[in-house]
Predict the 3D structure of the following.
Amino acid sequence: MIIIMSPAKLQDFETPAPVKDATNPLYGKEAKELYKSMEGITAGEIASLMSINPQLAHDVYQYIHAFPLSKTPKKQAAFAYNGIAYKGLDAETFSKKDMDFAQKHLVHISGLYGVLRPLDLIKPYRLEMQIPVVNNKGKDLYAFWSNTISNYLAKQMKGDDNILVNLASKEYAKAVNKKLLPKGHRIITPIFKQQTDKGYKQIVVYAKKARGMMSRFIIQNQLTDIEHLKAFDTEGYCFAPQLSDDKEWVFIR
């Protein structure tokens, strides 16, 4: 099975990665082209385009202009991303066997790089998939990346079992064009819910961490049978067949 995850806005390029193994992004040339098209944008325009505060916009402006420089720091994607989902993934504690499996089965979808494997070296950036950046392929990043991402996933799925485990947010999962995936493919989207006074509800912060934990569960157990995913029980979760269907598998706690 192939797993997809969203990237994280929070990134850590100061803490050294626990491994030296690294690979180059598959679509680094396209990423460079995309950022180059943004070099003429001012910090004020970035703030408006991305709906972020002036300080963050200044940081993004610097990322854009530092991107082509050789001295700009690089770090493997699985260790550079530092958001809630990546706390759940906890790649820092992966064994060599775990990382080898992750490199083949885990795909990070990125607004800048399109597709990233865990050991692909990335530079500091902030570019969410829904940002309307006009480019030579269309009006936004979906137009720029959708075919590339979908064709890559199709190739990976064909080489595996035609199953995609969608642990990405809606924003990033939307970049996958299902029409380009292999015939007979299957997409499973796990949903994580908490018990509340009003029944089982999806709470964003917990759902994000659970996506990372489930990715970790698949990787560490090297799952090859999708039915075995129902055994996921990290931090008290359990599969709820009564709330699930053939596309969305609900896990509750």
The chain has a mean pLDDT of 96. Residues 141-158 form the longest helix (18 residues). The two ends are 25 Å apart (CA to CA). The first strand starts at residue 2 and ends at 5.
